[in-house]
């Protein structure tokens, strides 16, 4: 049986500013191969967006168009580009064993493909050296929702299969330049909700959707919520698989790292014990987790996803199916909350992903369904996290699982995501 390795990712600010809680457990209550760490993402962390040759990512464009509820942007963020040494010191002083960060594709390769930016290369080398020389395990996310704007302009980013080749070449640079010191590679972040947030409800960059599926009161001007989320996720899966194969063929024997992918997870409790709700809960898991993990573990989408989405779902040719099957060494998950799920019979008209699931959900048993209601507080659910880890382990081949983000998500902004 594979051990369940876990990285608990806490935001640095939480570690540093939060009052010390009284804990009823110690490090020795956890297995030795359990890993505690913290994490950041490039756009939320680095700042220095126009320094030293970095070009804009789709998030620079998105925030500068005023799309954040509070009109904020990542121009300065945590200024990690300049202050990374202070942050590594916090990691060390907190006795954390691992640190995960993401690489800004448009900082390392400003044209999306081709020439490497020497200043970008130097920054990541310095950061990795700072971690490695202090014995901190280095976990890298290759791209955390922020591909270069230049590729968005050229061919629509994740909507084009052309991105598979460019992503693979970018990953190749990362493996070649940094792989001697990196133990864990995660190709992409929250593939499932990245596809939904970006292309179904249009809430995150590049903010595409079609009416009436926009988030909240968003008026959708460009996009197609019925098909684009499926196309984007399909290309992300092919890009992941291509990069992983490259790593295995060219680097893994020497560098001895592992490669995984990250999905956003919500544990699904059935709202009632009716057969319809029990099936809806399984369908919810098949859509939110299986959509991404089944192709990577077994070579194809779950049958209920194929059935409900029909011809809008891209299919894998036989050679693609063989190329993607078995391309994860571990599953990375983010888990903030659990939901109560009930059956919502499949609607006949135009559908998006949310309607394709044919289920409603809510964060508390007594709430109306999300969609009709934005929850104001979202309870953390450690038991749901445990059930999710057990479920994924059993359903997807007992792979190691890393909890890459978790915590309590009760802020107004988080709640307003619904
Ligand atoms: C979305 O794409 C589908 C399939 O190509 C098409 O039938 C539908 O009209 C498109 N919807 C919009 C809003 O463009
Ligand atoms: C459903 O059945 C399980 C197992 O018997 C029980 O624990 C749970 O409380 C039931 N849920 C509801 C909503 O009745």
From TrEMBL:
Claim: Ribosomal protein is one of the keywords in the record: no
Give the signal sequence positions. Answer: 1-18
List, in alphabetical order, the GO biological process terms annotated in this UniProt record. carbohydrate metabolic process
Question: Does this UniProt record's set of keywords contain Lipid biosynthesis?
Answer: no
Q: What is a GO molecular function of this protein?
A: beta-glucosidase activity
Q: Which domain of life is it from?
A: Eukaryota
Assembly and binders: Homo- and heterodimer.
Q: Which family does it belong to?
A: Belongs to the glycosyl hydrolase 1 family.
Protein name (Swiss-Prot/TrEMBL): 4-hydroxy-7-methoxy-3-oxo-3,4-dihydro-2H-1,4-benzoxazin-2-yl glucosidebeta-D-glucosidase
Organism, scientific name: Sorghum bicolor
């Amino acid at each position: 049986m594979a051990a369940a390795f876990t990285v608990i990712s806490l935001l640095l600010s939480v570690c540093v500013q939060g009052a010390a809680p009284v804990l009823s457990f110690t490090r020795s209550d956890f297995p030795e191969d359990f890993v505690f760490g913290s994490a950041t993402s490039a756009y939320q962390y680095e700042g220095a967006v126009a320094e030293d040759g970095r070009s804009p990512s789709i998030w620079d464009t998105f925030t500068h168009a005023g799309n954040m509820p509070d009109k904020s942007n990542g121009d300065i963020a945590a200024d990690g580009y300049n202050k990374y040494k202070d942050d590594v010191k916090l990691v060390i002083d907190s006795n954390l064993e691992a640190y995960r960060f993401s690489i800004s594709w448009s900082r390392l390769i400003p044209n999306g493909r081709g020439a490497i930016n020497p200043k970008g290369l130097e920054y990541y080398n310095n950061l990795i050296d700072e971690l490695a020389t202090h014995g901190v395990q280095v976990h890298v996310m290759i791209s955390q929702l922020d591909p270069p704007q230049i590729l968005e302009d050229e061919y629509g980013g994740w909507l084009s299969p052309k991105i598979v080749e460019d992503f693979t070449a970018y990953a190749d640079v990362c493996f070649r330049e940094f792989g001697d010191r990196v133990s864990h590679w995660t190709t992409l972040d929250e593939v499932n909700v990245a596809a939904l947030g970006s292309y179904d409800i249009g809430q995150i960059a590049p903010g595409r959707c079609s009416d009436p599926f926009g988030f909240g009161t968003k008026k959708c001007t460009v996009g197609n919520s019925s098909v684009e989320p499926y196309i984007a996720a399909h290309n992300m899966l092919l890009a992941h698989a291509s990069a992983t194969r490259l790593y295995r063929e060219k680097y893994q024997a020497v560098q001895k790292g592992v490669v995984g992918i990250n999905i956003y997870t919500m544990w699904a409790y059935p709202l009632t014990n009716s057969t319809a709700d029990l099936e809806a809960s399984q369908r919810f898991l098949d859509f939110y987790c299986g959509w991404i993990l089944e192709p990577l573990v077994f070579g194809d989408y779950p049958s209920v996803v194929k059935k409900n989405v029909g011809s809008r779902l891209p299919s894998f040719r036989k050679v693609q199916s063989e190329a993607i099957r078995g391309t994860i060494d571990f599953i990375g998950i983010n888990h903030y909350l659990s939901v109560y799920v009930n059956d919502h019979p499949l609607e006949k008209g135009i559908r998006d992903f949310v309607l394709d699931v044919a289920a409603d959900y809510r964060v508390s048993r007594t709430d109306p369904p999300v969609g009709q209601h934005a929850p104001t507080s979202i309870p953390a659910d450690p038991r749901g996290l445990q059930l999710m880890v057990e479920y994924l382990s059993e359903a997807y081949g007992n792979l190691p699982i890393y909890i890459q983000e978790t915590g309590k998500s009760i802020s107004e902004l988080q709640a307003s995501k619904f």
